[in-house]
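yo

u said u wanted the structure for the complex thing, so here. seqs first:
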Amino acid sequence: MRIARNIPELRVLLKTLRKQGGRIGFVPTMGYLHEGHASLIQHCRARCDSVVASIFVNPTQFGPDEDLNHYPHDLDRDQALCLNQGVTILFIPEATELYTTGFSTFIDPGPMGQVLCGSYRPGHFRGVATVVAKLFSIVQPDLAFFGQKDLQQAAILRRMVWDLNLPIELVVAPTIREHDGLAMSSRNAYLSIGERMRALCISRALAAATNAFQKGVRSATELVDTAKSLLGDLDELQYCELVDALTMDTIEGQVKRLAGLCVAGKIGRARLIDNVLLSEAADPTRLLSLVAIPD
Amino acid sequence: MRIARNIPELRVLLKTLRKQGGRIGFVPTMGYLHEGHASLIQHCRARCDSVVASIFVNPTQFGPDEDLNHYPHDLDRDQALCLNQGVTILFIPEATELYTTGFSTFIDPGPMGQVLCGSYRPGHFRGVATVVAKLFSIVQPDLAFFGQKDLQQAAILRRMVWDLNLPIELVVAPTIREHDGLAMSSRNAYLSIGERMRALCISRALAAATNAFQKGVRSATELVDTAKSLLGDLDELQYCELVDALTMDTIEGQVKRLAGLCVAGKIGRARLIDNVLLSEAADPTRLLSLVAIPD
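structre next:
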């Protein structure tokens, strides 16, 4: 594994890689890697000849009162994980290189970035879309991999790739969970043992709604209420909504197409999100991916 | 010259071109081509092995009360000009292909897009930046060529290329003028003979300011007033401002770095813009270009 700490170093490594002619996959992360990231790297290895991973805690996607300066980090452990998972190039840029003086161009994801997490984190998805577009330009991967856990992010990036004609195949991989169901997240590190127990209500609520869906319930209200009734252990429920998983439009009435039941809430100082796809498709996560533009 | 009327057709032609390995230059236009566009194509030919030109009247850069539906067009003449100028591929997409249902991702150029023309044309530069980013993704040129006449556009696109790490060299070429000084513009077609005469006040005003600058005047107020005093033939003066040509920040006090004196106004139904660079550099237009990222 080679490590690039700035764009010129990365460019040299990528040039060599490109000469070999294989498919380059990209896994952008904010570090403090867990099995969810490891799974993305594995998906990437399965589809690509080489894996570029990045670790960058992107300042433009954090609000002024958010946890930018406290975001968990352990670069040694992250590097070991990347090495063990077979990452080819690990890119660890500095914020000053990605955001130079006078930086002013942002990608605006439009209405999709305003709902759900976007209404609690103004500007968050603008920052996400911008940094991902930048990293895509820098790495120029053939495929890029994102986790279903950040469903709204996946939907927004999918739309961005489509709208901006980016020559990239976007792959969304299933959420990886702890043995008891808690969705893997770097922010789980914020939880005390008691909070960690209470956090389980989210995955249980989503599992209950999934169970109801599998038993034939198609009423959006009923599915949402099933989940909501189990979310009492949260210190703050921010939202529990059933949305079209590709557009983030609220589903009213009956679930028909690919639906995402999305939850966000706070436990202690941790803001946690999770979701499940409600669909009759065999592998619904796969439907979130955007297949390559044919050559 | 080959013509591509949609993205898949273009992709096939580009693939062949890329196999040849040379540098690909790109000249995006809105059609109704004139000697200014011809000059851009010539600059492109001088620097590149092949020239991709596009003709696309981009709806997202027009306001609801603007001239989208009346924008002049003459595709036969445009094709002949491109052929004569040695264009390799002419790309003429449809709006429905570039803006599919649910399109929602825009490039926001920030404060630079709000001033000058931006304050008279809300959303204009967002539309420009977005369509240029899209065309860059589709064509993937090594170099792209823009005219100095649209100075604010050039500055915004330069910043966009830099901010989004686009792997493109942006070249700005000098404004081409009619023999009497009027800056070439597709919108000059809107002018009656009388209006055409009155329109000359713009280039005369800019020439007077240039003359004052060359005689040593460095006061922003004096330079602006020199130009303004000659703009009485406009039906409406929208702005006459001295700005930093790279940032569009208003210059107050003394002109030091690369300054642009920018004018916009209306004559009849034509909205005309023009500018001159005030600089001690030998070839100031050249300073607007963004050189290639070294490999």
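Chain B touches chain A at residues 7-8, 11, 15, 98, 100, 102-112, 126, 129-130, 133-134, 137-138, 140, 159-160, 162-167, 247, 293-295 (CB under 8 Å). The first helix of chain B runs from residue 7 to 20.
cya
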